[in-house]
UniProtKB/TrEMBL annotation:
Coiled coil: none annotated. The lineage of its organism: Eukaryota, Metazoa, Chordata, Craniata, Vertebrata. It comes from the Eukaryota. This is rhomboid protease. Belongs to the peptidase S54 family.
């Protein structure tokens, strides 16, 4: 969520990765940054008669009320964060069950497709074939994040196509807004400059193979989406506590979780800054530097980055790889068994078929 108060986040974190978010700049389509206030037009005031006791001071217009700081406004966002995260992991567990169930059938389908492909005459310059070869050359992690990247690109294009009030309402997160919950997720797919989008997606692409190899694609997506809303809630909490409200966009909070869990799991991995590949450092040192910088920014009141969202995402990633995996993912068996029983009763298929045993 790294772009707070209409910002673009830019940070280099190593490996190939660097995390991006910068404050200010332009909205997509050349739309300038929107400010919270605008200068009101001046209206001529009637002259008051001169003389002692004849001047009546007009009462000053009341100021608009400031957004309430009550933490009670965070109850709904908190429940949404917990509920959405739970649903994400539950859906991921069921998805993994269904994937394992169809793996055998998919294996035979792929064998048949390969055999038929060999019988067909080869065509040079076939675009579809080249695309298929490129897709097959990707790692499972890269294939997994490809969908996330496409979603981010589509939302970026939507800023120039969809009416601006709709985008501001649902694709920017702000605890003072009337729409609080849904933007916590949608804003993490929203970017306000091509550089912001490209940098964040590059970081995600760089860490995708390592993260998905650790977690699997189903668990990875659950972690990514849960980290997205958790980082948004962290931003909500800090903004409400300090009274510094403002719209936020960007995937950096979720990406920070991916980066943090990889660096925690592989602390001795060597990383490098993309523009300075000759300088290398360990993943553990990179993570410490990032957390230290965001902590300092939070305590010192820096407004250039949304340090609360970054810290929320990073701490979630660290917590999950150390404790959450054991606490959540390894206790998914009751849900999977319940789903299996429901499929068995409703499908009535034999082993390997609909409703059959895995």
């Amino acid at each position: 969520m790294a772009w707070r108060s209409c910002s673009v986040l830019c940070r280099l974190t190593g490996g190939d990765p660097f995390l991006c978010s910068v404050k200010g700049g332009r909205w997509p389509g050349g739309f300038q940054q929107r400010c919270s206030f605008k200068k009101a037009s001046r209206t001529p005031e009637p002259k008051q008669p001169e003389g002692p006791g004849l001047q009546n001071q007009a009462p000053a217009a009341p100021r608009p009320p400031a957004p309430p700081r009550a933490l009670s406004r965070l109850v709904r966002p908190f429940l949404f964060t917990v509920g959405f995260s739970g649903c994400s992991f539950g859906a991921a567990a069921i998805w993994q069950y269904e994937s394992l169930k169809s793996r055998v059938q998919s294996y035979f389908n792929e064998l048949q497709a390969d055999w038929l492909e060999k019988l067909r005459p080869q065509k040079r310059g076939d675009v579809r074939k080249e695309i298929n070869q490129w897709w097959n050359s990707l790692t499972e992690g890269q294939k997994t994040v490809a969908g996330i990247i496409v979603a981010n690109v589509l939302v970026f294009c939507a800023w120039t196509l969809v009416p601006l009030p709709i985008m501001l309402r649902y694709f920017t997160s702000n605890p003072a807004s009337s729409a609080q919950c849904v933007p916590m997720l949608l804003s993490t797919f929203s970017h306000m400059s091509l550089f912001h989008l490209a940098a964040n997606m590059y970081v995600l692409w760089s860490f995708s193979s390592s993260a998905v190899s650790m977690l699997g694609r189903e668990q990875f997506l659950a972690v990514y989406l849960s980290a997205a809303v958790t980082s948004s809630f962290s931003s909500y909490l800090w903004k409400t506590a300090t009274g510094r409200y403002g719209p936020s966009v960007g995937a950096s909070g979720a990406i920070m979780a991916v980066l943090a869990l990889v660096c925690t799991k592989m602390p001795e991995a060597k990383l490098a800054i993309i523009f300075l590949p000759m300088f290398t450092f360990t993943a553990a040192n990179a993570l410490k530097a990032i957390v230290a910088m965001d902590t300092a920014g939070l305590l010192l009141g820096w407004r250039f980055f949304d340090h609360a969202a970054h810290l929320g995402g990073a701490l979630f990633g660290i917590w999950y790889i150390l404790f959450g995996h054991e606490l959540i993912w390894k206790n998914r068996d009751p849900l999977v068994k319940l789903w299996h029983d429901l499929r068995t009763r409703s499908g009535g298929g034999g082993p390997g078929g609909p409703g059959g045993a895995v």
